[in-house]
Amino acid sequence: MKSLLLNSLLSICCMTPPYLISGSKARAEDWGCQVILCLSNPGGPTQYGECGPPIQKLWRELAKGHSFPTCSGVGFHSSRPGFEPYYCKAGYRLAGEDGVRGRQATCVSTSPQPVSDALCSNDGDFGTRNDSVLSPHWQRQDGRRQCMGYPIARPNVRSQPHYVDVTIDGAATQRVWY
């Protein structure tokens, strides 16, 4: 029954290579093959209930430092597990900063934004020190002088900070968070 449900899942996932359905090379009963089938689902690895148990087992095993499972007959590669606890909203990049509490993560705007004129001095040097803007400077904007800088924001904290990069059958690599 479990194999039938996973094969049904496969027929829904139009991006799944046909050899995963055939059973001649990879078997849906194998835990490693179940993981690969579920990870190849464009709707996400746990979109279907049948994928919950094998994917949850994967997260537990990776969290213990075990390697990614294998599936014979499938062109599959995974990276070593990684850890990335922070991320930034669109238009910002993650950067490290030395602060009073040591090295800290911060998000810095990828393009200059208008900021308070108080941050720029009249002679072109840096004005008032501000921990919320990097590199304040005067710049011509729409024919007038505007104080511009790179705003800093707090990074967001991931609920699932661990990841592996997975490539299935030479397709684009996808990052799987757990």
| Main sheet overview | 5 strands, antiparallel
Beta-strand proportion: 25-35%
Low-confidence spans: pLDDT under 50, at least 5 residues?
1-27, 124-128
Count of individual domains: 2
The proportion of residues forming helix, as a percent range, comes to 10-25%
Whole-Å distance between the termini? Answer: 28 Å
Secondary structure class reads alpha+beta
From the alpha carbons, calculate the radius of gyration and give it in angstroms: 24 Å
Order of helices and strands: HHHHEEEEEEEEEEE
Q: What's the rounded overall pLDDT mean? A: 76
Descriptive overview:
Strand 10 (162-168) and strand 11 form a beta hairpin. The protein contains 4 helices and 11 strands. Strands 4, 5, 6, 7 and 8 form a 5-stranded antiparallel β-sheet that branches. Strands 1, 2, 10 and 11 form a 4-stranded antiparallel β-sheet that branches. It folds into 2 domains: 2-84 and 162-177, no CATH class; 86-156, no CATH class. It is elongated and about 65 Å long. The chain is 20% helix and 32% strand. With 178 residues, it is an alpha+beta fold. It has helices at 2-12, 19-22, 31-39, 52-63, and strands spanning 76-78, 82-83, 86-87, 92-99, 102-109, 113-114, 133-141, 144-153, 156-157, 162-168, 174-177. Residues 1-27 and 124-128 have low confidence and may be disordered.
